[in-house]
Task: structure prediction
Amino acid sequence: MKIRLFTTYCFGLSLLLASACTYDNEEDLFGENECNSTTSLVQDMQPIIEAHCAIPGCHVAGATSPNLTLASNIVNEAVRIRARTQNRTMPPSASGITLTEAEIRTIDCWVQQGAKDN
Result:
């Protein structure tokens, strides 16, 4: 009787374990990688910067450095921009301005792709 009960228990446990095994890849778990397409400075990055960073009193000429109204400064500060937006220290919380997850991913992808002036 004990052997039959043990066999039934082992069989049930093996079915449970087998049903728990699935094949998951990154795209299934997290959606398509947003960095598959080319991210452009002009079309993707500058609109984010102009709406959230290069605004009066912030990253414009005569205000907080760096001046992000210049494309060359955006390119030169790319790694820093990515770091500050990913750790959510920019834009500062006191500003009341926030970036969406999609905007943060766009910045990350642009930097991963070499922060090109395109």
